[in-house]
């Protein structure tokens, strides 16, 4: 029995700058590649170039990083944002508290699936092919959702670590053989 091959597609990190409030209008003027339109969205959309990632920065002192496909890149982008904020004159007490909120990975199980049989055999599944072509497989441990497709491909969402992704691949492979 072979586990699926996987590739991390996106990592979402949240960073919280304790006791910090951002002046979004002023900050948007100071950061290159930043957009702020409070009539459309209550935060700054900011693009980091090296490493490539995007941020949503809020007045509350929170910044969400999305778009990196490696954890080290997401962490480096977050560190670079903190540096740029300090260089722009923003008073930040310490380093932000950073947490992984979500990792999304694509799977290739290397074979096709009979989704109707899987849906009948497992209670933690949803399959409505007239609404969506994939089967939704919810795992309790790790707490992730895996979308499976007839082609043998899949998507894992909700992971907090790469080991969650690997464990999910193994549990799906074990369950459906």
TrEMBL record:
UniProt keywords, alphabetically: DNA-binding, Repeat, Transcription, Transcription regulation
Function: General factor that plays a role in the activation of archaeal genes transcribed by RNA polymerase. Binds specifically to the TATA box promoter element which lies close to the position of transcription initiation.
Protein name: TATA-box-binding protein
One GO BP: DNA-templated transcription initiation
Protein family (similarity comment): Belongs to the TBP family.
Gene Ontology molecular function: any one: DNA-binding transcription factor activity
Organism: candidate division MSBL1 archaeon SCGC-AAA259E19
SUPFAM superfamilies xref list: TATA-box binding protein-like
């Amino acid at each position: 029995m072979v586990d699926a091959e996987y590739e991390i597609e996106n990592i979402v990190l949240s960073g919280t700058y304790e006791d910090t409030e951002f002046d979004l209008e002023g900050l948007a003027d100071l950061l290159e590649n930043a957009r702020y339109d409070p009539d459309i969205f209550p935060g700054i959309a900011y693009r980091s170039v090296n490493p490539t990632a995007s941020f949503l920065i809020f007045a509350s002192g929170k910044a969400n990083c999305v778009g990196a496909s490696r954890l080290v890149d997401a962490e480096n982008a977050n560190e670079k944002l903190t540096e740029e904020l300090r260089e722009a004159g923003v008073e930040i007490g310490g380093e932000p508290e950073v947490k992984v909120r979500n990792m999304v990975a694509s799977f290739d199980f290397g074979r096709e699936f009979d989704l109707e049989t899987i849906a009948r055999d497992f209670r933690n599944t949803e399959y409505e092919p007239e609404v969506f072509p994939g089967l939704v497989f919810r795992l309790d441990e790790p707490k992730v959702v895996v979308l499976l497709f007839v082609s043998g491909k899949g998507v894992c969402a909700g992971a907090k670590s790469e080991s969650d992704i690997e464990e999910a691949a193994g549990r799906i492979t074990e369950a459906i053989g």
